[in-house]
Amino acid sequence: MIRSLFFLLLGVFALLRTAVGHNVKLEAQGRECFFEDLRAGDTMTVSYQVGDSDASASSGSGGIDFWVNDPRNSAVKVEKDVQHGEFTFVASHNGRYTYCFSNEAAGYVSKEIGFNVHGVVYVDASETPEDPLEHEIKTLSQLLEQVKDELEYIMIRERVHRNTAESTNSRVKWWSIFQIGVVAGSGVFQVYFLKRFFEVKSAV
Fold it and tell me: What DSSP string describes 71-137?
């Protein structure tokens, strides 16, 4: 019984592509492309989150461009100037599907991109007998993948917000130092000016 359950689990997980989390640094004017070999009917999901790789960079300095091309090099999805997103599609042809992240439009700020890729291999229902236990395990596996993706998304969002907070704190600090310098300089100037104004000048 245990052995048959073990092989059943192996069979179900073989049907599912494991969710894979990646982090990549996209330099200014840079582009990174990745690919997956799919069969017609396979489902693929790409979710991503963009953040500035440098905490001192200005928050809201623009997003990246994202697109997916099919094996015929036709665009399946194109998004411009985005900070995060998720795209799911069903492969219509056998072959290599390419998805790219581009920082070419942003200009001068490097970006850090965290993304997940996962999918489900298409299996004809007529070829696989329906088993309640197999169905429940498959559903549980999909839910676990969604939880994992959500946790990775939250971690990336936390890093983006932390960078924004550090950038804001740094600007507030330097602005405060500048204000103190201006006030101190103004005080010294006023003391010096008033001292000279009240000086008694005697003619020789």
Answer: TTS-EEEEEEEESEEEEEEE--SSEEEEEEEE-TTT-S--EEEEEEEEEE----TTTS---HHHHHH
pTM for the predicted model, two decimal places:
0.58
The phi and psi torsions of 125 (rounded to 5 degrees) equal -60, -30
Instruction: Identify how many contiguous H helices and E strands the chain contains and give both numbers.
Output: 2, 8
Domain 2-161 adopts which CATH fold? Jelly Rolls (2.60.120)
- pLDDT tens for each residue of 149-196: 778 778 777 877 888 888 889 999 999 999 999 999 999 988 888 888
Measuring CA to CA, which residue among 87, 95, 78, 158 is closest to residue 116? 87
Q: How many CB atoms lie within 10 A of CB 64?
A: 25
Residue 10 identity: L
Alpha-carbon distance values, 130 to 58, 124, 186 (Å): 54, 11, 83
Domain ranges in the chain? Answer: 2-161
* Residue 95 backbone class (left: φ over 0; alpha: ψ -120 to 50; beta: rest): left
Closest CA to 99 of 35, 18, 24: 35
